[in-house]
Amino acid sequence: MKKLKFPTAQTILIFIAVFVTLLTWIVPAGKYDSLAYNATSNTFNKTSIEESIELPATQETLENLNIKIPIQKFISGDIYRPIGIPDTYKELESKPQGLAALATSPIKGIIAAADIIFLILIIGGLIGIMNLTGAFDAGIFWMAKTLKGREYILIILVTTLIAAGGTTFGLAEETMAFYPILIPVFLAAKYDAMVGLACIFLGSGIGTMCSTINPFSTIIASDAAGINWTTGLNNRLIMLVVCLAITILYILYYAKRVKVDPSKSIIYDQKEELEKVFGIKPMNTTTEFTNRLRLITVVFSLCFVVMIYGVSFLGWWFVEMTTTFLIGAILIGIIGKIKESVFVEVFAKGAASLLSVAFIVGIARGVTILMEDGLISDTILFHASTLTEGMNKGVFTNVMLFIYGGLSFFMPSSSGMAVLTMPIMSPLADTVNIGRETIVNTYQYGMGLFYLINPTSLILAALAIVKIGFNKWLQFIMPLLILLLITTMILLTISVY
């Protein structure tokens, strides 16, 4: 009999879409009323299933709706998305999603995720142009020679820098660009692709999980909870240092085993295949790292510097990020003296190489659309919020951690989760006599821990780029996930006593 093969990322997501479709037939439909600020008229729009009414944008209006958020948070633009209104949940007529909705969900998802999909495709084209110039080969082997005997520095440096991006501005989707670039570096350093994947994905995951000043999670969640974002910052800093140290030590331990004995690699059976995919040549390469190739590498690196600066300080998002990589590819083509016809052909092939990754992102977004159309997300939130009534504060805190982990399967967007759940969940902290910053922290940690294995997050897209199966990732990550979960539960419990 042929050996059973673990399904691809696309198939896993289709199974999840089928599961969610079935849930819409089982879970009752329901919805909270929402409140949105209209800056043009300086009013609130209160929307329910029955009607949409305009209310004056005053603190009194918020207090009448039992929303404990300063009015200034709306006026300043800190809260820019509609928020859920506490105590307004209503059961609605069921809206089960049928075969037609299931069939169209991937297409709707691809259309909805067009911004990140085009970013991925343009990055693929840029990688193709870089490979053509030979700058990657020369740079990789120059780095391997420079770090010979000290390759562990690469693990510490990459993981720490990406975690820094995650904790400050939510570096997540942008890391899709790093896998095709850095995986060959780790392979040349005699590690396996799992080490490179772990450094990038876990760096981003731990950084965003322990966000300190990240506007897309910490600040927007704190605003929606009615507290200053600096409240609870010390606890998040401690969590960041502890969890990042545990993660780096775990990766170093695995990497050392693989370097000493390659057969210890979880993906040892893919060794030759991955080295071929990522173009790893023998160490006696004749590619010289010329001044032209150095300049190309500088331009390539500047694309990321400009992107990070733009996102952090200029309010850039996917359109500007994608444009940055496109301009970078054109400049590299000019410096590398690549003919126009060759440039177009290679760029298109590079983009095509990441097309499967783009489809994964689209299908995952389609799963979210199924839940939204089936009106089950708010029902799950409502029942989750009623579980914690009358609990001991230590138990309450850890239950909230698991609730947010579970909710993140249905609402993988950190900002979407914050504005929807914080006005409803944060008042629960008052009932057990703990600070609302604890709810903000459990939201971050719960989402962050489950993010490491959540198939509706970015892990399947990352695995598709690196050509590693989800089953292999689970085999690698589970010991670390359990260790991080226990650590988080202990530190959270200490923080409320």
How are the elements arranged and paired?
Layout: H1 9-26, E1 30-31, E2 34-38, E3 43-47, E4 52-56, H2 59-64, H3 72-75, E5 83-84, E6 90-91, H4 99-112, H5 114-133, H6 135-146, H7 152-169, H8 179-188, H9 193-209, H10 215-225, H11 233-260, H12 271-277, H13 291-313, H14 318-335, H15 340-353, H16 355-373, H17 377-386, H18 393-410, H19 414-425, H20 427-431, H21 437-451, H22 459-466, H23 470-496
Antiparallel strand pairs: 1-6, 2-3, 2-5, 3-4
Helix pairs in contact: 1-16, 4-16, 5-14, 5-15, 5-16, 6-8, 6-13, 7-9, 7-11, 8-9, 9-11, 9-21, 9-22, 10-19, 10-21, 11-23, 13-14, 16-22, 18-21, 18-23, 19-21, 21-23
Give the N-terminus to C-terminus distance in angstroms: 58 Å
Total discrete domains: 1
Overall structural class, as computed from helix and strand content, comes to: mainly alpha
Proportion of helical residues: 55-70%
* Low-pLDDT windows of residues: 282-286
How is the biggest beta sheet arranged? 4 strands, antiparallel
Strand order across the biggest sheet?
4-3-2-5
Specify the overall morphology: globular
H/E series, N to C?
HEEEEHHEEHHHHHHHHHHHHHHHHHHHH
Radius of gyration: 24 Å
β-strand percent reads under 5%
Q: Give the total of beta strands.
A: 6
The count of helical stretches stands at 23
Average pLDDT score: 86
